[in-house]
Please model this.
Amino acid sequence: MAEQRVSIHGQWTNRTVFILAATGSAVGLGNIWKFPYITGENGGGTFVLVYLMCIALIGIPIMIAEIMLGRRGKQSPINTMATLAKGEGRNPAWVWLGWMGVVAGFLILSYYSVIAGWAMSYIFRTGGGMFLGVTADGANSIFAELVTDPERLLAWHTIFMVMTMLVVGRGVKQGLEKAVTFLMPFLFGLLILIVIYAMTTGYFTEGLEFLFSPGAITGKAILIAMGHAFFTLSLGMGAIMVYGSYLSDEYSIVQASIIVALADTVVALLAGMAIFPIVFANDLQPGAGPGLIFQTLPIAFGHMQGGTLVGVVFFTLLLFAAWTSAISLIEPAVAYLVENRGVNRIYAATWVGLLTWFAGLGTIFSFNIWKDNTISIPFVFENFTFFDTLDYLTANVMLPLGGLFIALFAGWIMRQESTREELYTYPAIYKTWRFLTRYIAPVAVIVVFLKAVSLI
Ligand code: PHE
Model:
């Protein structure tokens, strides 16, 4: 390799650890909490199909590009973009891509932490036997009782932010590696168990039909599907870039990216297959919104053999999945502060954490005291709470925009020798990647943006 940089923050021990960490970042609330409820809100089949196409044609090439940029720059996304733009003799304004990512990560974490708090509180609710024999109405009101209580939400949000900052403060190796190594396979196994339960509800085919049979779709739903492809793969804001910067030069990026994207997709589809049969078996609404998994899965846990234990383990694993994603949301900001302000990780993590914690209040209040304070932007969205707005702006605008610029940088700004040298894969694979990155991904993102605001 021509570049001899090494990251000052350390390096992943080996390729497997990198794959686990990237999967840990990708697999999170996005797969288990968000994917089912937005699929439910947007009508199922076609939405899932568009999402899968976005993963394959936009997500995977951009993931390769983003890891590649990170590994070549070996610094926080902000400094990586500055270094790479300079190295390629290009406009220093590319550094703004790094900054947008830091802001997006901060905004996402502010609400992500609140939802992770729901998962945490559900560990105790399930463990305490609250759901034994529960009805659909009962599960609904237990959920409503939680989210209408700002104090409780605040307590859980605070605990989750502290947990996240503790790991981030400890750094790449000791903090992040340990947590992901054995939890991911465990989560996978448990989801399969719940899918098996869903098969016994008698509504499994209805669930599958909802997930996979095509129907009508709107421009807005297409944007949400694409935004979710970015969100679920942790793309477009530097999380995967910063993880790439801790990857040693000798490992192949292409293969790792495909493994991560596949694992992430399988987890989301399993979550869908677990949840929708339960939704239909209990006459619930697939479009129930952000509470969907909290209103459906407890019914399963309340009725299956050993459900209390399964439920406790499930919500614990969900918490861990959220945890390993949360640390990657904030890592770009922390790495930047360490690089440019000369502070240590603990100090950086504390300040970023405090700020994020504070911003999280907006999301907490969106479910209770600010519930009716909504805003509308003509042609874009209507009657959105603070939380809805944050979610929409980050997932459907900032991440795709970040991804678009990453694709443009990797496909058009960097010299071909640089990208070929960094990816060193088979010529056919390299050519496919380059074609997708130069043409398909950028055009697709722009077309979807225009379609969502009804301009085409
Ligand atoms: N991919 C994570 C999830 O699906 C969320 C995330 C988004 C993490 C962006 C990092 C960056 O839950």
Observations:
- The CA atoms of residues 1 and 292 lie 49 Å apart.
